């Protein structure tokens, strides 16, 4: 006992104990500048109490409900044993299996994309052919209200089914799914996001929503589908269906699963746009933090396979089996090689900025609308009703436009499928009807490729405004639908409008001012302004239009759009992520945080376990706390109130591991067959572990002890309490950590830093200054 | 003193002292499996003694001469002060400056590329026009030896100058420069690699080499030039010219400089191939370890600017100013949209594998040749002579081919610039002469775009063999020349040969078997087989031929080539890197190293400094050791022989920082103006610090002390001695570290791990098994 006291006194200055924390904090506060003082003053109330009301729509509060994924390998004795036993063959087999899984991901994602594609096309054809015929039939009889009501009904019925599916079966399937996939790849466990139920609701839902005529596209949901497919295949089992194929067992951990999901997302992009390179870049730009060449390569492989499968199926569907470069396979149609002149570039940049402005406004409106939805549309039936109302509104707007604007063009000039005459003369068709009586994707193709003079300025102008607002109200509905296509459509329409205007100004410039070219630039500008991606978007647009010579103007446009938009607000995906309070870690640590230290950021006191601990104690801890990781320490040097408070860091153990150990009753006193225990016991339960309430522990069991050493991660990354926030951030981000134990000078655990502690510091612009704001954490959000 | 002893005894088990290391190691050895035992047994002799001879050409020895770059920010008090003082404005300014630098990098890289392009074209035109005319003139007189000797002379003279420049002025400018840039981006300080002298030699050298008719291209050197330009501009000063513009001072550190260099390399690719997206992917695939979105975006920006500038200048040069999508701007010519059928894909894959085989053989031959060169061509004059001989050989081979193979085609069919009649009839020209009498790049264009039946099988066959061997002997000469183009040329030739063969077999398939298509596939296969890149290469080929519809066949070909090639050996760049013994860190830690611990890998005993140390001691340490980083420790707990051996880790200080502190005489006793000291004192000296011998320290100075705390990095990443090799590897790679102090349980420094300690473990395939081999380190290599 004497030597213990001795030790404590000797290291009085070095030991940074729990009791001393608050006084040390004050000392630090005094030594820091005013700026960090103001930071520190708010530090003590980082979690909102339950009676504090969270203002709906706030962007500055993190939700406490999101857990992190764990990308760090637990190098415990079991893993070492496994490696030793299995050797090279196992390694090669695992590697081959990995390639096989990526192959399967590519194929399955493409097949799902094909089904969605073909279903939408077939159903839409029936719908719009009927409508077109009816309009022309009843217009003669003066009973235009009949096709109108048919249009409304044709919109409402599928949307009703789709929205009900989303609202009642799987709410996480709403929207495009890209924000959710982005969060997952960033390391946040979004509940349900990669479940098979989500996949089914998502893919059926997107068909119904698009057929229902909503202003949305199928691309986002396809990307999400790819991610789910990847997560499903790589695990070789489905908990929903309670099937375990017993294959790919070694991929049952967060790290491997993440890799597959990033491949799946890429395959999804690849299937949605026929853009394999764009897919890889998308999964990099939106998700990855650590660039890994071999992973990227496998991702690329999945993308290629996906495009390949898609093209094989679709070429057969289009009646040209095997002709993989059939131009009809390009989603947005094949562009001729545009020529452009250097003096057009500034003009493209201007259009980009304009797109950025429009996009920022779109994001703002959508944000306000989302806040309103969070506040008032809380009931599931209300959500379905809202979706149906918007579907009816879409039909009404469309019908009014073709009814009121008499934009007629002679037949034969435009490759429209269902020419509708409306009030036009014989041998003519109503241009607006041809735009509305097809899927939005087909409309984008029309605007890109219709010959000049197909559309007049007025109809384009009205269309832009109508579609801009419609797409804005549609995104965020309880429907599985994306925003790529409607945004492209809005942009293509105003781009074409610009071309019409230019041709009015310079009637001789017909050779240069091709409306399709301007439609493309407008579409890129609008999309860039809304989603703020650059590299992947450039490549996706290049690939999906089969046009590479136009790369430079596209990139300039996209950069201008992003910069202009970023001046006002965040991209739409990030806005929605912030609305949900997801603790997303940005790419780089915020500035000005070199003088915020681990001791200020960490949670403490920290709950620890001993290397050999009582079952009783473990069960109690699991019941009392919600922590997911526990530092394992040597029996502590001093005890307070007869209870260990801290000790020297020996390892880290996860809640899930403890649960499995308790379930399997791996107690020192009773377990006999130690030989049979391997890493696979944890994989078998992955990813849905029981809760502690579901584990039965008898009173007798509670007397036993557990030796945690074979199971724990024996050398977790840890840092000193004097480490700066930016260093912790880099460590966390680069290595994909979930927990970071903070130790004092003698390697005793004094605190714990998790994702939320780091994500709380966010850069924002405040009156022209860059400041670091501190978010609060709410358990209610 | 008593309490100290007490402490030591209490922690006997925990303290892992220097003296105990060897016995602990043995203990560990016994507890490990046989595999790691064999590893450990060799661990004790990791550095070759000076009398051990390094076999020339070994791939299994690391050179001790390469230092690491330091990407970790030193968050010392000075930096915190600076941040506090300068605030937001400084941050915004720095950010804007960063964009400006990337803009400048793009412009300058493109301008250099343009000069190289235009010089080569002009000089080659003169050369080949003269030759062509001479041949046709002297053939009538029967004096063919005259044009032959002219050809030889025209080859030897520029090559002689170019090789002399490389051999005598800047040897690091030899070759393509891509391996060197790759090493730099990986974090290895390759001496001279980003110096302005290198840039000059490189760009003049490449013009001379290509004009000299060597089987090489200008692309690699252009990429290297981009990297140098980036390093130069971003530093705002040139040590070579002793000019300091006083700008961009804040970028004077390894981390910032690396970012710029990766942008420069991308801009280089972009300028060389007109492939901005390919450029970004290249710099990612070959260099980056940590994916950073904003960096990637700036890299993209530089690439775009580079392509843009290049196209503006070249379009003006070609007489179509401002027409940026003039097809002549595409290096390898614009491809028509090929159609391909699904049943052609397996055939493309076969061709890919064949390319992989040829590539692996090429690499093997080149490796053997390089070893021979290392052994025998050591003298500078010998190097120059060798280059001249190869130049003469190239001329001879070319001349013999056009002399011996009478491949005549009627004029007008082929867009050759200088039709040479040779022995052909009137109105005909010699096809081989038209291939040889132009730059290799132009020959690639010919093979890609010449109409069918331009080349007959025999001439193609001979050409493939000749060029294959020539390009193999050329790579590795003391000339600044790359291998992209000759490899593409070889591949294009055998690809065309395949098409000729196919047309013989299926005479009716003329619609499908376009020789240009097969030339493209062959070129991709050959290049993929030699360099083993996939993603970036696909995109580069797509961009440089303006052809996107052919992406899928290209990717399949490249993957097949890479897999086949990887079965036999490494890519040519990696082989050359291994030959130089550069400690490159691969993407992932080797397998089976979970049970190798820091305590086994680290260097020890470690030389430490105290937080306040005597000048005398510091100078002595700097003189005695070659270490670049020193842990700063608290006054140690026990002393041995009156000398501190280890203590509790407080920070890390670099040799360069110590030098600057000594130079500035920042001694506790004498320095008065502490206020004026800021981080900039270190930046001012970056990157070439004085050696300790150049710092004058008087005997009086030696009595003073230095307080290291304001200068040191106060919270370096450190790990416990029980951390596994794979964890250390991941930490090192993800964070770009240079030094990793190893601590014991009470946070006392017991060892140091550097890049070489980790790079020593390399995966290799040995009789079908994947094993981890341990490399030795040599100070001689």
Automatic annotation (TrEMBL), chains A, B:
| One Pfam family from the record | CBS
Instruction: Please give, as recorded in its UniProt entry, the membrane topology of this protein.
Output: Multi-pass membrane protein
* Domain annotation CBS: ranges: 602-670, 712-770
* Segments passing through the bilayer: 99-120, 148-169, 300-320, 340-365, 386-405, 457-477, 484-506, 518-541, 548-565
Entries under Gene3D superfamilies matching the protein: CBS-domain, Clc chloride channel
Q: Of which family is this protein a member?
A: Belongs to the chloride channel (TC 2.A.49) family.
Q: What is this protein called?
A: Chloride channel protein
